[in-house]
Design a protein that fits this description.
31% of the residues lie in helices and 16% in strands. The protein has six helices and 14 strands. Strands 1-4-7-10-13 form a five-stranded parallel sheet.
Length: 201
């Protein structure tokens, strides 16, 4: 796992971010189009804000992250550590907390939360302790999934859509949420008209 503190210089990282989108999103047809992606707006702002955060310019870093959230719908705390070739597909309503650690080649889909369990538990942790997840290399986290608390998702794992992860996952894990249950067809002839209208609304 590498983070931007130990990786290439900022300009090289930004170029690599564009190349990552082109490689992972078949809908991306050009570098110019990639510049319109909310993911790029959020990630590039994070790359700058994180450097400011590390240098002690915390207010400015937070202001930048809030601006990026308003523009992109993706909230990345500037204190988080994110590795190389990170990609958020359809980036809306993604939340990445302050003490999150993300490895290389990680992919998230929309509405993913990498958060804490709750402030009532965080207050009982030692000062400065990790409150958020560590995500290893080459992990994919599906739409609507939540990984909460100071847990570790091992490298090469897959977290399915809408799964909730509250415990450590070893490398190469596969996690899925309960799927829908197919019920018998509704006999509309046996349902009173008011109830049928309510079901259809």
């Amino acid at each position: 796992m590498t983070t931007c503190e130990k990786g290439p210089r900022l300009r090289a990282l930004l170029a690599e971010d564009i190349a990552t989108v082109l490689a992972k999103d078949p809908a991306a047809s050009s570098r110019a189009e990639v510049l319109l992606y909310p993911h790029i707006h959020a990630l590039w702002t994070y790359r700058v804000a994180h450097r400011l955060w590390r240098r002690g310019h915390r207010f400015t870093a937070r202001a930048l992250s809030l601006l990026a959230r308003a523009v992109s719908g993706i909230e990345i705390h500037p204190g988080a550590r994110i590795g190389r070739r990170f990609f958020v597909d359809h980036g809306t309503a993604v939340v990445i907390g302050e003490t999150v650690r993300i490895g290389d080649d990680v992919m998230l889909y929309h509405q993913v939360t990498l958060g804490s369990v709750g402030w009532w538990k965080d207050l009982r942790r030692p000062a400065g302790s990790r409150r958020h997840p560590v995500v290893g290399d080459r992990v994919i986290i599906g739409t609507g999934a939540s990984v909460l608390g100071p847990v570790t998702v091992g490298s090469d794992s897959r977290v399915g859509a809408h799964a909730i992860v509250l415990d450590d996952l070893p490398p190469h894990s596969r996690v899925v949420a309960p799927t829908c249950e197919v019920l018998p067809a509704l006999d509309t002839g046996a349902v009173p008209e008011p109830a049928l209208n309510q079901l259809a609304s």
